[in-house]
Write a structure and sequence with these properties.
CATH topology of the largest domain: D-Maltodextrin-Binding Protein, domain 2
Number of strands: 10
Order of helices and strands: HEHEHEHEHEHEHEHEEHHEH
Helix content: 40-55%
Largest sheet: 10 strands, mixed
CATH superfamily of the largest domain: Bordetella uptake gene, domain 1
Low-confidence stretches: 2-20
Distance between the termini: 71 Å
CATH architecture of the largest domain: 3-Layer(aba) Sandwich
Shape: globular
Number of domains: 2
Structural class: alpha/beta
Number of helices: 11
Radius of gyration: 22 Å
Length: 313
């Protein structure tokens, strides 16, 4: 009789667990944006929000938890229960924090659900710059000229990307951090620096207006948004790195949670309803999931760590 009771109890437990998995989501889902409202990560999530709510048939609650360059919000996300009801807007800011040793977590403490958007890092110069190509800029540095390169923020992803490019080109640039992207762009337009390294979306307006000109960018292949700008690899520099945005959760997310999110995002991307948002943001839709995404995260994290190591020297 005891064996029968145990057997029945075990059966009910399995049925209950299976039912719970099948019902995901059965309540609101919180997505933590580890930055203030109005920024790129926030805009990305809020643009996806109504589309995801329709696909997942539940409310998506966007919660901005800013501080520490993303550290506060990401720390909250990684410490949450891995049940699929607390996720985070993930980006290479996570890998920057990890690379600089500013946080206790690493990329391996997260389950990455999807990469949705990306943009290249772009090397740009003033419209009247002496440099017409990446090669001319690199050659000047090789010949002893102090080539000043502006970036947004000390230890930022743009700072690390600039170091990674100098490593790939085997030269030393005089890298000058500014408080933000607008100050960095102004410095280039005013001739206070020779070049800048920033995300393509941030440079979109000054490039389109001709106030700056792009010499190269960090994609593996040319970008639809910057079709006339050569890649670093085209110019002979072995570096591929992107500014990306996606969704992640704490390690241990159930398979059905990841599958549900991937299915929803795949449908949204296939319908094309998100394309206008991407265009307005100056970003490229470049979804990755599963093993391909894990490989991408591992590779980009390694590049960031190596460049951050050089930055610390």
């Amino acid at each position: 009789m005891k064996k029968l009771i145990v057997s029945i109890a075990a059966t009910f437990a399995v049925v209950a667990a299976t039912s719970a998995m099948a019902e995901y989501p059965d309540k609101n889902i919180e997505v933590i944006v580890p930055f203030s409202a109005g920024g790129g990560n926030d805009t990305f999530v809020r643009a996806l929000q109504p589309l995801l709510e329709e696909k997942l048939d539940t409310d998506i609650v966007v919660r901005n938890i800013a501080g520490g360059g993303g550290a506060v919000g990401l720390s909250r996300a990684v410490a949450s229960d891995p049940d699929g009801y607390t996720l985070a807007a993930a980006s290479n800011a996570l890998q920057t924090l990890e690379a600089m040793g500013n946080v206790a977590f690493t990329s391996e403490d997260f389950d990455f659900v999807a990469k949705v958007l990306e943009e290249p890092y772009v090397v740009a110069v003033g419209s009247d710059s002496e440099f017409e190509t990446l090669e001319s800029m690199v050659t000047a540095a090789q010949n002893g000229q102090s080539v000043q390169v502006g970036v947004s923020g000390v230890g930022s992803s743009a700072h690390i990307a600039a170091v990674a490019f100098s490593d790939a080109a085997d030269v030393e640039f005089n890298i000058i951090p500014y408080p933000g992207g607008s100050e960095t762009i102004s410095a280039a337009m005013g001739g206070h620096v020779d070049a800048v390294v920033l995300g393509g979306a941030e440079l979109r307006s000054p490039l389109q207006s001709g106030r700056l000109k792009a010499l190269g960018m960090s994609y593996e292949e040319r970008s639809d948004s910057l079709p006339d700008v050569p890649t670093f690899k085209e110019e002979g520099y072995d570096l591929s790195l992107t500014v990306w945005r996606g969704i992640a959760g704490p390690k241990g997310l159930p398979d059905n949670v990841k599958e549900t999110w991937v299915s929803a995002i795949e449908e949204i991307m296939a319908e094309g309803s998100f394309q206008e948002t991407a265009d307005n943001l100056g970003l490229d839709i470049a979804p990755l999931y599963g093993d391909e995404l894990d490989e991408f995260i591992t590779t980009s994290a390694q590049i960031m760590r190596e460049a951050a190591g050089d930055l610390a020297q």
